[in-house]
Amino acid sequence: MRPTVSGLRALRGAMLAATILTAASACDKLTPAFAARSERPAHVAVPPDTLDISGRPRMLYQVFGERSDPRMLPVAALTDGILRPLTFSDEGWRVFDRTYHQPGALYTLYRDGRATGTARVMRPMWDASGAPLYSLPHCARPTPLAAARVKAPPPLGYMVEFLATDAPLPTPARRIARGQQTGARDPLAAAQRIAAAVAQSTGLPMELLATLDFDAATVATGVGETPTLVLSLVDAEAGTDQSANGIHLFALADRVGTEIIPSYARVVRGDGPGQYRRYVDHLDLTGDGVDELVLEGWTEGQESYLLILQFQRGRWAEVFRGRTNWCLD
To answer: Quick one: DSSP state of residue 227?
Structure first.
């Protein structure tokens, strides 16, 4: 392991952030004539609306893209402490767009679990003439996005990534203060020990760990009296001829009693397509005083998606998964 203990943003690798941009940026900024909508194939079944938005439930977004022209991706509805998926008919999505993507609509940006600025909608998915913001090849129904303007304190790089919502989320000051504790005398040593334990329990050869780039961070989730430990090991040459076959280890760890033990793990051994994970952020989406963890997941060669984890019975469990395909067809 080539170890470092990094801040939260170091786990947001630009290489992996680009996966969520692939589908949208390649077909972005098209003129209405070039972005002509195709007719829906007869065999494509359009689902019914599964969420009543007449009462305007709160929404969770991912804001991403170039700082000068970011996009807002609707992720889930937040109703009564529950994350609800967004599934609509064609007309349902247009009603959603008119309801939530009115130019000037303001959403609070979050990073590292705290409010950090605003995202203002500049353009909905469909303009007054019905022309879409973007299109995808061979796709009649791309996921609706909105164009936004981001206002947040520096540092802001060329690319941005935030969570955003119109829900009034809590940010307890006590948790921020408590989160400064490391939870271990030597957090790097604790992270290395957790990585070794996960590798051993899943059959990943220990000698391979030394070849992987290693990042670790502590996250003030509100679980217990110490932060959650986030660690990620990945082949630095992934996707090249020198790649160690895409080996990847991602784990979370929390203190139970006097020990810090694994509370979530995902291992890709490099012997075939695997489910990769990247830490994105943490936020108390359900208002119960304990943050959810937001991850990005992907399979090599496929589009990325968001995962949301909750701490349940001593472990982190997946409670929500976003769409794995940008085309709603």
So the answer is: P
Domain that holds residue 227: 2-10+173-321
How many domains would you assign to the chain? Answer: 2
Domain-embedded: residue 89: yes
Determine which of 102-116, 119-133, 179-193, 297-311 has the lowest per-residue pLDDT on average: 179-193
| Helices and strands, number each (H, E), in the chain | 5, 16
β-bridge mates for residue 310, sequence order:
317
My answer on whether 194 and 156 are in the same domain is no
Place of tokens 């604790």: 190
> What DSSP line would sit under 267-322, residue for residue?
EE-SSS--EEEEEEEEE-SSSSSS-EEEEEEEETTS--EEEEEEEETTEEEEEEE-
Do residues 204 and 312 share a domain?
yes
| Residue in this structure with the two tokens 């271990």, named with its chain if needed | 184
Amino acid (1-letter code) at residue 169: L
Say how many residues make up the chain: 329
Q: What's the first-to-final CA gap in the chain, in angstroms?
A: 42
The pTM is what? 0.84
Residues 150 and 42 in one domain: yes
Q: Specify if 326 maps to a domain.
A: no
Residues 236/26, Cβ–Cβ less than 8 Å: no
Q: Which of 147, 165, 183 is the last residue of a domain?
A: 165
3-class secondary-structure state, position 98 = helix
Rounded to whole angstroms, the Cα distance separating 89 from 261 reads 44
The angle subtended at Cα 48 by Cα 37 and Cα 167, nearest 5°, is: 90
d(CA 139, CA 39): 9
Give residue-wise pLDDT tens across range 224-283: 888 999 999 988 765 444 444 588 999 999 998 888 999 999 998 877 778 899 999 999
pLDDT at 206 over 80: yes
Which tokens sit at 327?
């085309």
Distance in angstroms (rounded) separating the CA atoms of residues 296 and 19: 10
